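Dear colleagues,

As part of the handover before I leave the project, I'm documenting each prediction I ran so the next person doesn't have to rerun anything. This entry is a single chain, and its sequence is reproduced below.
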Amino acid sequence: MGDIPDALCLTIDLFGFSNFMMIYVDEPQLIFKLLDFFQERITSYLEQILSKGASTLYRIVGPEYATPPYFSPADGDIEISEAREILGKNIVLFGNIEERLFEVGTKEDIRREVKKTIEAGKKAGNFVLCPTAMPLNTPLDNRIKDNIKYYIDFGLEFGKY
């Protein structure tokens, strides 16, 4: 599985997150031009490598930047059914569990989100339950460890088709 940064990730990497946010507030049109610039190149790159037979399993990185409190949910939040409608049936969707849930969620929060996500994923077609990221801190806090275990257990419980 390869990682492909999205246009937002590449744009933010140019400036660093803090500088990006200041530029976005002052000159949003510049940011949108850069997003278009990078998106054209990402599309061209993917078309090229896929036409040469490269693996077709990619994890897109970067959308997590478009989340509250920095951007409104309308900038990056999308339901699985909406993504399926836009992308069609030949794409396997991954995700829909926010990494932050491992840090602040309760066992019941994990259960509810995993169940809801898997049910939506089943209806939408090809789907893999996956968190947006994994916690980076080491050693892991016991709450995070427990929540990751709950996530796996509930995924196995509700993930049977």
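The chain has a mean pLDDT of 86. The CA atoms of residues 80 and 120 lie 6 Å apart.

All the best with the project,
I.
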